[in-house]
From TrEMBL:
Residues 1-20 form the signal peptide. This is Beta-lactamase family protein. It comes from Pseudonocardia alaniniphila. The keyword Transcription regulation does not apply. Residues 32-353 form the Beta-lactamase-related domain. PANTHER family: BETA-LACTAMASE-RELATED DOMAIN-CONTAINING PROTEIN (PTHR46825:SF15), D-ALANYL-D-ALANINE-CARBOXYPEPTIDASE/ENDOPEPTIDASE AMPH (PTHR46825). Coiled coil: none annotated. InterPro entries: AmpC-like (IPR050491), Beta-lactam-related (IPR001466), Beta-lactam/transpept-like (IPR012338). Keywords: Membrane, Signal, Transmembrane, Transmembrane helix. It comes from the Bacteria. The lineage of its organism: Bacteria, Bacillati, Actinomycetota, Actinomycetes, Pseudonocardiales.
Amino acid sequence: MRMLIVSGVVAVMTSLTSTAATPAPAVDSAAIDAVVDEYRRAIGLPGTAVVITHGNTEVHAAGYGRTPTGEHVTEHTPMAVASVSKSFTALAVMQLVETGRVNLDQSVQVYLPEFAMADPRATEITVRQLLDQTSGMSDTTFPAFSRPQPSSLVEAVAGMRGARLAADPGTQWEYHNPNFQVAARMVEVTSGQPFDEYLQEHVFGPLGMTDSRTVDTARDLPPSAHGHLRILGVAVPLPEPPAFGNGSGGVLSSAHDMAAWLIAQNNQGRGPDGTSIASAATVAAMHTPSTVSDSYALGWSIGTTASGAPLIAHSGDLFTSTAYQALLPASGYGLAVMANTGLAYADAAAIAERLIALLENTPTPPTGPPLAMVDSVLLLLVLAAVLLGGFGVHRSGRWAAAGTGRLRAAPRLLPLVVPLVLFATIHRAVGLLYRGRDVTWIQVTYLYPTFMLLLATATLACIAVLVARLIALAR
């Protein structure tokens, strides 16, 4: 049944490729520049790179603004593509499937004996289930970020030995970065090459992607590939928080290189010069949703555009940069955007949404309320917390004198401890808001910097008042 579906998709893609060969709607570089420049001015985006392809042709590739280190962003500036990396890992695995060295529906442990978990069900996890994220692994049972971070794919897989599954393999879809870390390590063991070396030889090299590579951890990112937080509309350069990402989010690429990647996806596995990195059937299989989730395939998300047209895409989110890639099968377009601001702002996806509207000649989505206004309100509350804390310390003597004894004072002091408890556990509360995803405390600070400043100020103010009142009671 799965092969019939893939064959059908191949036939549809062949038909769409023929359609894409017809003259494209008139979208020129000036119109694309205007969309990007207007967004950058409205939002205060420091730097971005954009590429649009049509069929086997690059329509536009350019950089805008500056990197955190002050260089101009160009079409050859390597930028982090974050979870867009998953589609590269999926292709690497599928190449091994093509050559017969890997079977998608075989147990992962057949190819990667070192992969073991405390849960006996892990022996049932197939290669396909890693790539379509139905393995049963989950942030709720194996924290991706809050555990000690590995420094290599070997360590990443070894760290899973004490973990359990959240569901039976193949029964539930859940986004989980370690799925693709296991897949990347499987590529290393099966091919006998380090993962970056494999991608250079079998993907980046054949496509002429000379600006691209993959790294293990956030500390391996070059300074120019870090990003920014925006506070009061001002972009503040910051390094990416510590994390491991090879296989799941470690690829660096440029607008120039992403053009070749998009062309291969829209051209049945053939790059700009006709070099094949995968068969048409393989590409179609990667774009076919799983039987468990109709919105996720093998390293790609499946959906529709605002106009209802088919959309094959994947976003990528780091805490100081974002990325987005999309294929529009009905028109033959492909596009990719990299932005050097973090996931709190979703700038890459927002620019991509506007470019898709341009390509489809539909209304441009409205720009949301400026976050600078939210920052202003939160900073005013910071000032209020300081003033209230000072007032509480000043009046602590009167508070103690007006009380009815030390024992009865304890319940009146307990509310002052609440901000401290929230400050220490805020990452768990945010994780619940993100549907159980694992989030560290420092990552929350990157997500909501002014809110965390308010929470820290309120915590210190309450502690100061608490200490002052205890001293007053003792006297």
